[in-house]
Design brief:
alpha/beta; Nucleotidyltransferase, domain 5; 5 strands; about 25% strand
Length: about 130
């Protein structure tokens, strides 16, 4: 019984396709994260008396990162028992998940990490099926 998993991931959604002995299952995982706004320039408004690194922007960044960590944990937990993992997606989430899997000693199962634009669920399934057939 060889379980192969392919997933398209960004910071907001993962579409995971599991293929196990000709059975195929597709699952969506949503991060439920709010859009992260990055501030630029030196126009930080800090309250008087706050320490460096405690601006509203810094706290927002920490919340965003903590939320992403929980999201990656949820995605990684669904990959237990996989024999092979294919990761693809448009942004940095695929690399961040790859690093998470390295820490969890699952990186030896990763067959490829690829850049891919937005895709429909059918396109994702076809890509995973094509890779593992």
């Amino acid at each position: 019984m060889k379980k192969e998993i392919g997933l398209w991931i960004d910071h907001y959604k993962t579409v995971m396709v599991s293929i196990d002995d000709e059975k195929e299952e597709t699952r969506e995982i949503h991060s439920n994260i709010e859009k992260h706004v990055r501030h630029s320039g030196g126009l930080h408004t800090k309250d008087p008396g706050t320490s460096p690194g405690s601006s509203a922007e810094d706290m927002s960044d920490r919340r965003f990162i903590n939320h992403l960590n929980g999201y990656y944990d949820a995605v990684a937990s669904l990959m237990r028992g996989a024999a092979s993992i294919l990761i693809f997606g448009p942004g940095s989430a695929k690399i961040e998940l790859e690093k998470r899997l390295e820490r969890e000693k699952l990186d030896g199962l990763i067959v490829s990490v690829e850049t891919a634009d937005k895709m429909t669920d059918r396109q994702i399934v076809a890509k995973v099926r094509g890779r593992f057939s």
